[in-house]
Amino acid sequence: MSSQEIAIEPKVNYLNCDYSIKSWLLTTDHKRIAWLYMMAITFFFTVGGIAATLMRLNLLEPQGLLVEPETYNKLFSIHGIIMVFFFLVPSIPAVMGNFFLPMMLGARDVAFPKLNLLSWYVFMTGGSLVLYAVIAGGVDTGWTFYTPLSTLYLNTHVMAAAGGVFIAGFSSILTGLNFVVTIHKMRAPGLTWFRLPLFVWAMYAASIIFIIGTPVVAISLFLIIVERLFHVGIFDPSLGGDPILFQHLFWFYSHPAVYVMILPSMGVVSELITTFSRKRIFGYHFVAFSSVAIAAIGFLVWGHHMFISGQSVYAGLVFSALSMAVAIPSAVKVFNWTATLYKGSISYEAPMLYALGFIGLFTIGGLTGLFLATTATDQHLHDTYFVIAHFHYIMVGGAVMGYLGGIHYWWPKMTGRLYPDGWARVAAIIVFVGFNLTFFPQFVLGYLGMPRRYAVYPAEFHTLNVISTAGASILGLGYVIPLIYLAWSIRYGPVAGPNPWKATGLEWKTSSPPPTHNFEETPIVTEEPYRYDLLAEEIHVA
Amino acid sequence: MPHAFPIFPQEASTVAPAVDHLFYFLTAVSVFFASLIFLLIFYFAIKYRRRSKDELPPKNQVINNIPLEVTWTVIPMILVAVMYLWGAEIFVRNAMPPPNALEIFVIGKQWMWHIEHSNGKREINALHIPAGVPVKLTMTSQDVIHDFSVPAFRMKMDVVPDRYTTEWFEATQPGKYRLFCDQYCGMGHALMRGWVYVMSPQDYQRWLTSGVTGQTMAQQGEALYNQLGCVTCHGTGKGPPFVGLYGRPVKLSDGTTVIANDAYIRESILEPSAQIVNGYRAIMPTFKGQVSEEQILQLTAYIKSLASTESNTGAP
């Protein structure tokens, strides 16, 4: 089927089949649920972003420009809790995974569509509880909820916030379960495991982490609530508990959660790099298995958050070695993406700019991770701005760049419309520049010793903080521009056609926007993914 | 006007240059690989740019190359192994204070640092130490977790309630260095900071003895020993004696042996029934809530002062 041929849009698609509010709120269509998630996490991203903006403004002056330390502590707590649990963790899986995983498999929907809708409601219930905590006066535990501070010493809305995260965790578990079953049972005829797009492999790895890891963090947050309510000594030493135990439980999930945030982005980038260089991925098996390796080893490295916590030196040494091991599959991925570009036919639409930006920023984020996995340097850098810079290179430079790249890549499929590519490229470059200006100075701040979570700071750190805040204002602009042109494109954008990028995935083999059941007839897969070498025939026939 | 800003932190301890050399090695490796990736991407991006809309790359491309995959797996493996071992060597050294280290006690509480020297001299949010002498901090917290961080020494360690953590360093340069709490500890976290004053040993001695009219920590501990009634059992043979106890192995009633260190003594005061010395009955009441962390340190100092006494009577 040639892409140019299908100029006629089918009359009925998943968007225009029913316009009622009820049809959205009670939908079991994975594509509509993806939109519900996208609306929700865009909202949460905005809330988290406003908190970040206020923090950066406050740090313009060493003594604090805007707010009291108490308020600043609430701002960074809200920023962290919302961005991690209500944006980054659900972002790509719940939006692009929901929308495209079934389509990439040639399926009509996920395995359990009603469970899928339920997971959104569970997510919104948790989110509402956290928003209540924010509005009712805030929470100042930090996103890490360290004990005994969180259980005994703070009088803010800790229980609402921890409860919200606890509830939202079940939405992750349900989504992970749904994806694993879908990938196992719903693949189109001929779609063997090694014919799966790498995005599907990444989703699989992320889903495993959802299922295994989320219950642990849910339980640890639940125990915080139990200790606060009933004074049962679990973490608080004055009640006979162990404060370090909480850190073990928390990081057992929260380190793998980092990979939940980055693996899906890696999956997206594998799709983008192949499409925009019109080449098969270099080392398919290595890229696929490196995702699984990252997910597996990711469960064994939690103790690198605790080198200086009072944990035994031997434990520190073991966790350091295991953390080093995670660097290997990550490096393998970067090398394979770079090799994929070799002798390609590379074009620079906005999604590709995001993908290349991802590789660059992820490389820096990954390499600086080695400084923190190395015990002796971590002993200096731990809990400083170096850590902040490092994980923002992974979480924002990696995960958010991947998310934006994916949104720009699949937007024509989701909406049937094209956005103005010029604006999109400008926004991608603004994001890249703004990001580096914001976070690179923080590596230096951390090396100099500036601690994280400081509302006020010594004057010698002033200049670098001003540069960082200046960068943040550019970064913020880069996030606002896409909101405008993407919204504009839904109504005014040119019609996209089924396959504007001439990509090979199954999701491009149906109309845009897709019909409710995705495919008019179930596709039969006869090839490995990314067979851009077969594109020649199609183009030449056209 | 913004303050002029440095790029490199001060190096003021014996371990600081070692950490910095490792840091430079890591930076060099990072810069090399980041540059390699960036240059390759830029080179490919320009050389293989799509020149017309329908242009396709040449056919029959290599998409798998096992020797290449092995190469770029093994080289990073070797490099991270070097980083690991290099870091581990320093980390282990950092975890082992020399036996002759000068011992100082730190109690963290929201939001200040209490510091007590062996001779009983106290200070708040300031730590005076001699240059060229290894210093060991024994630290605990009265409330939440704090972290005693001195960037110029490249050293930090969490300060945890209900247990002792230690860190040690040997300052090299007399001067004044920042002390931060690095573990978020609630509202005043950013204000929980102070200074470490490194002095010449002579100046330190002068500082240490000036203005001290009270007793040493051990003397205060001895007073407590009498005042709290410890003496009625531990001085009469009803309870295990303290002379020669500190640093020695203690045989417990369950057959195991522990070393009588700070943590053991602390637990024996707060939870006496947790570890019963072999041959004694579990009759001691807990002193939880009756003694402060500072008093426990003083009692420990007193017991420690009895360690070197020659008359090693009745110690298990």
Largest interface pair: A-B, 99 and 89 residues
Report the order of strands and helices of chain B: HHEEEEEEEEEEHHHEEHH
Radius of gyration of chain A: 23 Å
Compute the number of helices of chain A.
Answer: 17
Strand content of chain A: under 5%
Query: Helix and strand succession of chain A?
Result: HHHHHHHHHHHHHHHHH
Summed over residues and divided by their number, the pLDDT of chain B gives a mean of: 89
Detailed description of the structure:
The complex is a heterodimer of chains A (542) and B (316). Chain A is mostly helical and 542 residues long. Helices cover 67% and strands 0% of the residues of chain A. Chain A contains 17 helices and no strands. By secondary structure, chain B is an alpha+beta fold. In chain B, 34% of the residues lie in helices and 21% in strands. Chain B has helices at 16-47, 66-94, 201-209, 217-227, 231-234, 262-270, 293-305; strands spanning 102-109, 112-117, 122-124, 126-130, 134-141, 146-150, 155-159, 165-170, 175-181, 193-199, 249-251, 257-259. Chain B has a five-stranded mixed sheet, covered by helices on one side. In chain B, strands 4-10-9-6-7 form a five-stranded mixed sheet, covered by helices on one side. Classes of the chains: A mainly alpha (542), B alpha+beta (316). The interface between A and B is large, with 99 and 89 residues.
Please outline the helices and strands.
The complex is a heterodimer of chains A (542) and B (316).
Chain A: H1 21-25, H2 30-58, H3 69-88, H4 91-105, H5 113-135, H6 149-153, H7 158-185, H8 198-230, H9 243-277, H10 284-298, H11 313-341, H12 350-373, H13 375-381, H14 385-415, H15 421-448, H16 462-492, H17 535-541
Helix pairs in contact in A: 2-3, 2-4, 2-5, 2-16, 4-7, 4-8, 4-14, 5-7, 7-8, 8-9, 8-10, 9-10, 9-11, 9-12, 9-14, 10-11, 11-12, 12-14, 12-15, 14-15, 15-16
Chain B: H1 16-47, H2 66-94, E1 102-109, E2 112-117, E3 122-124, E4 126-130, E5 134-141, E6 146-150, E7 155-159, E8 165-170, E9 175-181, E10 193-199, H3 201-209, H4 217-227, H5 231-234, E11 249-251, E12 257-259, H6 262-270, H7 293-305
Helix pairs in contact in B: 1-2, 4-7
